[in-house]
């Protein structure tokens, strides 16, 4: 039990590190992407989906996160949050207080698509906006259209937002996690050039960050520029294996 908890903590630590790196990249401009042009945003996301479809397994989860800073200039954050919610066709925002900071939040959850909006107070007059879109394979086209909408809307509202994406595929296989990783790398390498830069492994998970210059999203991670992260995780309770791809890093649970 103690070993299992330690492994879980290590996975969470890797996930948190990835999130921090991505946020740091947005903050200091090291994450490179077509920030606002909706057609470019759509093209970039579709290209990443085409690449990820080369990985084995069934697409169970697709997540796109838009997030960035917004400074209030005589505009009420409640009105901004309400406008975003209206454009995304999600419920009226609720005002909450978390850790002493005001948060405006709305969540819409259907069978094929989940949308989550948070407009969070950082300090007086400064806010952080997060729009998370999540779907399964059946809802991916609808998610792509909402992704385009976010690119247009957040720019028009003066929100300095960037995006990243992560995908999760599952399968039942007799291959070990290391064997499956190599097979998946070989499959992806048919479409892009990729070079492993950072590696993490434990009893059930192996995760690698890659330099893949052809991909549209990039972040500086230590001394390396990385465009993709992949993890293969053996779920012994469910008796299946999950392949998680993050562009540029994984920001969802393995």
From TrEMBL:
Keywords (alphabetical) are: Membrane, Transmembrane, Transmembrane helix
* Gene3D superfamilies assigned to the protein according to its UniProt record, in alphabetical order: YwmB-like (3.30.360.40)
Per its UniProt record, what Pfam families does this chain match? DUF1779 (PF08680)
This chain belongs to the protein called YwmB family TATA-box binding protein
Organism's domain of life? Bacteria
Q: Show the stretches that span the lipid bilayer.
A: 12-29
């Amino acid at each position: 039990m103690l070993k299992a908890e330690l492994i879980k903590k290590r996975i969470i630590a890797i996930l948190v590190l990835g999130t921090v790196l991505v946020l740091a990249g947005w903050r200091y401009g090291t994450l490179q992407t077509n920030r606002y042009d909706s057609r470019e945003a759509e093209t970039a996301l579709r290209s990443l989906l085409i690449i990820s479809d080369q990985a084995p397994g069934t697409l169970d989860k697709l997540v796109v996160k838009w997030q960035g800073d917004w400074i209030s200039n005589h505009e009420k954050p409640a009105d901004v949050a309400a406008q975003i919610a209206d454009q995304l066709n999600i419920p009226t925002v609720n005002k909450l207080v978390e850790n002493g900071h005001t948060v405006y939040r709305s969540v819409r959850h259907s069978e094929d698509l989940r949308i989550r909006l948070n407009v969070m107070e950082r300090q007086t007059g400064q806010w952080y906006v997060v729009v998370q879109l999540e779907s399964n394979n059946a809802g991916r086209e609808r998610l792509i259209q909402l992704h385009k909408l976010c690119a247009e809307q957040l720019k028009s509202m003066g929100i300095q937002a960037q995006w990243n994406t992560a995908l999760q595929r599952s399968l039942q296989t007799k291959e070990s996690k290391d064997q499956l990783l190599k097979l998946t790398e070989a499959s992806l390498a048919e479409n892009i050039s990729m070079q492993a830069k950072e590696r993490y492994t434990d009893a059930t998970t192996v995760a690698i960050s890659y330099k893949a210059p052809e991909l549209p999203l990039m972040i500086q991670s230590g001394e390396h520029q990385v465009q993709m992260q992949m993890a293969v995780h053996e779920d012994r309770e469910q008796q299946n294996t999950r392949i998680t791809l993050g562009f540029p890093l994984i920001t969802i649970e393995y």
